[in-house]
Design a protein that fits this description.
Helix content is 76%, strand content 0%. It is mainly alpha-helical and 123 residues long. It has a single domain, classed as de novo design (two linked rop proteins), CATH 1.20.1440.60.
């Protein structure tokens, strides 16, 4: 299957799942965190899929790699925020663990994609 849209990318599909998972987890967090940790978690989660999509729509591999790099940064940010939420007991371990597993999977996928984009195109 050829990739004609960002919607064809497995990493984008998993990032969208992740964003939905984070939204569900955010609903379970204390209301007083709504404009603090919860808000940052949601922005980081959305940023991953959004930057993959934006990068894919760019005209050059260099631009695409740049947006994948931003998505990698958002992935690390989200992981940090989730670990903090878990460690401060704002989010139960049973909720955080599968999300953290998905983050690790996406981080690996983004690293592979970034490496391919940075590699010289084959003739």
């Amino acid at each position: 299957m050829s990739v004609t849209s960002h919607r064809d990318l497995d990493v984008w599909k998993v990032a969208m799942e992740l964003a939905r998972d984070v939204y569900a987890a955010a609903r379970a967090m204390p209301k007083q965190e709504e404009f603090r940790l919860t808000s940052q978690m949601l922005r980081a989660a959305v940023s991953i899929a959004a930057n993959i999509a934006e990068g894919h729509a760019r005209a050059t591999r260099k631009d695409y790699a740049h947006f994948v790099s931003i998505a990698k940064g958002s992935t690390a940010e989200l992981e940090t925020l989730l670990l903090l939420a878990r460690d401060t007991e704002l989010l139960p371990q049973t909720t955080a663990a599968p999300i953290l597993d998905k983050i690790e999977r996406i981080a690996k996928m983004l690293a592979r994609l970034h490496s391919r984009l940075k590699a010289a195109p084959q003739s």
